[in-house]
Structures are given as structure tokens and as C-alpha cells.
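Whiteboard transcription, Tuesday session. T.W. wrote the C-alpha cells on the left side:
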């Protein structure tokens, strides 16, 4: 496998194993309702130490139990060691490109990102995607899935570290409003809410005057939850964050990378957006409505075949493995 800056940035450990592997093994399995593919390569000797930030020992983390999920997963990485020593794990071009991100994060947080922010975070990053609640999507011309990423602050971290996340969020929204204002765009309104579960910082667009339709941008209400238990959740949607704040949790594995996709929920979103999808496709089909409609309906029919998909990647027993499983609708 050739060197790749993007792959080294996102998947440094697996990228190194694939790049240096003398051979690759794979297996395929196909049944009436399931397809699975496994690929594995021998891990370079000592990769657990040389690329330690990517290979945290297995443990469990709390994951909110939510309905209407499109996707959920956990990604592990020691962010502090990775970011402060990223020149050891990234290709040179990726390191150069990370300098701007480092400067932006330092500006937003008012602290060094690697040693003063990331170093105080646990190694797990939880990700969720869900469907907008019915009341939140009412009147929207197009619906997007909502997403969230969850971090956890380590015990013993500076007491004012959560305040740095709040300041960074407020600064990011302020900068976005300033940039949007220069292009005559409507600014987002900030709101802070104190709850029994922590502080919620959110931004949203003002509703249009009565009688005027909602805009697509009103799908977005960027939000930050600073939980009393040390949890930090960042979301594209206030409604999703409010659900996360009060949801019960279950313990799930944190080992490498795992993602689960619920295809029926994604299909429901596309079904509600069908007219918009057809209109967008119409431009590519040169105004041929039958071709545009046929393409969208064929895409949705194909998606309806599938029920769920999952992806797993980890280092185990001297091998770096990637497992893909796709389950068909019964």
C-alpha cells in the first residue's frame, strides 16, 4: 500500500500495518440474508508501542440508548500523545496540513490543543447519528440526519477545562456569524441552558416570519453538552443533544473502531426527501423527469434491500483486521 497523507492522519496505526504488510489475507461469506468480508494483515513487530495512541487496551464506555438511530460507534485514540507527537505517525504533508488546525484550536480554546486539551481526554470517541424528532422536522424543505460526537474528560483534569470547551464553542459560533454577516447571511442566535444533567450551549437560526417557509439551514442547531459526569457531547442538533442528556446508557466495547449502520432509518429520511432528490437529479438528467424519478426510485429500492451494516477494525493476536458485515432485510 502506498503512503497516503489522509490515511496516516485518520488511521495511522492501520495505515502503517497495511503499508508495510508482506501479505494480506481475506475471507468472504455469503448467505441468504448476510454478506461479510474480513481482511487482515500481520502487524509490524512492536507496533503496539511505536503506534501506541492508536491501540488502546480494550475497555468499556457508556453509550446513550436512543431510538431512531441511523448510526452509532466508538473510535479509540490517545488524542494527547497523538497530537503532540503527530510527526511520528503522519506523513509529512499531513503534518504540514495539521498546523492550521493546531493554530485554530489554540485560538478557540485559548490553550495548547495537545498538552492542555487532548491530553486530558479519555481515549474513546463515541459517535451517533439519528433522525430528527417529528416536531423538529415539521415544515423543513429537506431533512438531514443529526450527528453527535462524545468525549470524556479524565479524572484529575483542570477544573476549568469544561469552561474552555464552552468558550471554544461560543467563539466558533461568533466567528461563523461574523463570516456569514460579511455575506449578508442570517446570524445564529446563542442560548445557554442549565439542566440537571449539565450545561447545554446551543445556536439556532431565527424562525422566518409567519407564513414564510422554513429554510434548509434550520436543520442545524449546533450544540454542546457539558455533563456533570465529565462527558462532553458536540452535536449538529439541539434536539439530539437533549435526548442524549436524559437517555439511559449501556456499556459498550471500546476497542479499535466499530460502527453500526441502521439502513431502514436512513431509508425513511430519503423517502421523506424524495421530491428534493428528484428535483436535484432532474438537473443532471437535463430536465428528463422520468429519468430523474427512475434513478431515485431505483436507488431507494436498492437501499430497501438492506437492514443493517457494521464495520470493525482492531489489533488482535498480532494481526490488524477489518471486518465488514451487511445484513439484508428478512
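and on the right, the sequence the group agreed on:
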Amino acid at each position: 500500500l502506498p503512503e497516503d497523507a489522509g490515511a496516516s492522519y485518520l488511521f495511522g496505526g492501520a495505515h502503517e500495518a497495511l503499508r508495510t504488510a508482506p501479505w494480506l489475507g481475506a475471507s468472504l461469506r455469503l448467505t441468504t440474508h448476510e454478506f461479510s468480508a474480513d481482511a487482515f494483515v500481520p502487524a509490524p513487530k512492536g507496533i503496539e508501542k511505536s503506534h501506541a495512541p492508536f491501540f488502546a487496551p480494550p475497555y468499556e464506555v457508556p453509550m446513550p440508548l436512543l431510538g431512531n438511530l441511523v448510526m452509532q460507534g466508538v473510535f479509540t485514540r490517545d488524542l494527547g500523545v497523538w497530537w503532540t507527537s503527530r510527526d511520528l505517525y503522519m506523513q509529512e504533508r499531513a503534518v504540514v496540513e495539521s498546523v492550521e488546525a493546531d493554530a485554530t484550536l489554540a485560538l478557540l480554546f485559548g490553550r495548547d490543543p495537545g498538552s492542555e486539551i487532548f491530553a486530558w481526554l479519555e481515549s474513546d470517541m463515541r459517535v451517533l447519528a439519528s433522525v430528527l424528532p417529528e416536531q423538529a422536522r415539521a415544515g423543513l424543505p429537506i431533512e438531514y440526519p443529526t450527528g453527535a460526537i462524545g468525549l470524556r474528560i479524565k479524572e484529575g483534569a483542570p477544573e476549568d477545562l469544561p469552561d474552555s470547551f464552552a468558550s471554544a464553542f461560543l467563539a466558533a459560533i461568533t466567528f461563523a456569524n461574523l463570516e456569514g454577516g460579511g455575506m449578508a447571511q442570517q446570524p445564529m442566535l446563542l442560548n445557554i441552558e442549565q439542566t440537571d444533567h449539565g450545561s447545554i450551549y446551543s445556536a439556532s437560526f431565527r424562525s422566518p416570519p409567519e407564513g414564510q417557509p422554513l429554510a434548509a439551514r434550520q436543520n442545524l442547531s449546533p450544540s454542546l453538552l457539558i455533563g456533570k459526569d465529565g462527558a462532553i457531547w458536540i452535536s449538529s442538533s439541539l434536539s439530539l443533544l437533549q435526548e442524549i442528556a436524559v437517555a439511559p446508557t449501556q456499556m459498550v466495547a471500546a476497542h479499535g473502531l466499530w460502527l453500526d449502520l441502521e439502513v431502514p432509518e436512513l431509508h425513511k429520511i430519503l423517502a421523506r426527501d424524495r421530491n428534493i432528490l428528484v428535483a436535484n437529479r432532474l438537473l443532471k438528467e437535463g430536465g428528463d423527469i422520468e429519468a430523474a424519478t427512475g434513478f431515485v426510485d431505483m436507488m431507494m429500492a436498492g437501499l430497501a434491500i438492506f437492514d443493517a451494516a457494521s464495520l470493525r477494525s482492531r489489533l488482535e493476536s498480532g494481526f490488524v483486521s477489518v471486518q465488514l458485515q451487511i445484513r439484508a432485510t428478512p
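Someone added at the bottom: The radius of gyration is 22 Å.
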